[in-house]
Amino acid sequence: MSFVSSITLIITVIxxxxxxxxFFSVLFRITGLPKEKAGFQAVSLLTNAGxxxxxxxxxxxxxxxxxxxxxxxxxxxxxxxxxxxLFINMFLSIDFSQVHNQLYLLLISFGSMVAFFLFLRIPxxxxxxxxxxxxxxxxxxxxxxxxxxxxxxxxxxxxxxVNIFLYKVPDFLYGKCLxxxxxxxxxxxxxxxxxxxxxxHYVKADTIFTKNDTLIAFGPLxxxxxxxxxxxxxxxxxxxxxxxGEQNVITIMSNFGYQVLVDIKxxxxxxxxxxxxxxxxxxxxxxxxxxxxxxxxxxPLTLTKDTVLEKGDRVIAFGPYENIRALFGESQN
Length: 333
Hints:
Shape: flat
Distance between the termini: 66 Å
Strand content: 15-25%
Number of domains: 3
Number of strands: 11
Radius of gyration: 25 Å
Structural class: alpha+beta
Largest sheet: 6 strands, mixed
């Protein structure tokens, strides 16, 4: 391979690498990660650097994110090998009789690449590029959708403003106008706008949402996910809401970033934990949740790997707040 060909391929691969970082960042945002965390995770996975155990929990605790992370890691390994090979080939193809001309060409080429990336950092260019990549990625997922997708646009503490693509209209919205769905009272979620057939519309009290609509919503991120995420593939979505007496009551005791220490009044044992020991349920593996203490009939239990939770227990747990809500229930203090 000639020196010029090597430089051209290196620059091409680097540009593709940059586009992949943006692509995987959008994928993580679709699963509900905030923009900053999604970008960090994409860079970490593709460059195989900076991926700490603490940060990894928000990826490994969710099935879709684990699949995206696996694809990103494999892609990152592939491109790392390709880039290293191209650099080695470039140096091996140097003609030392024309080293000054080749050095000049190298500086011009990589200087142009740096200028190109600086150009992409101009605010209006970065915004336009990001919008284009977001649109293409979401469009691809719309065509292959088997679930509703939530793309987090920005976060404000526990609240977030999000895009929601409706693969399936949730039961509480199906065939109902917005006023009758009572979404604000039930979930504290506000629908701000929606897009249908490429056209933007403001919501009204009599608006009825349909499949393939894209909504812009604001509210607690956990509540948005609770309202719009379907169940895991293969599971049936619940059609009847649980009565208040059956809901677990979650009280946050302390907050440590996205992880919390909670007190759970167990009015209903989660299906994946019913008649299973703490070890058998594997909630630490699947949800990164640690059961710290269990009290039964006002008496603390000595926890072992064989402990089985029962209705009426009081549970002290620690883990990602969204995962605790997803596993144990809906109501909270």
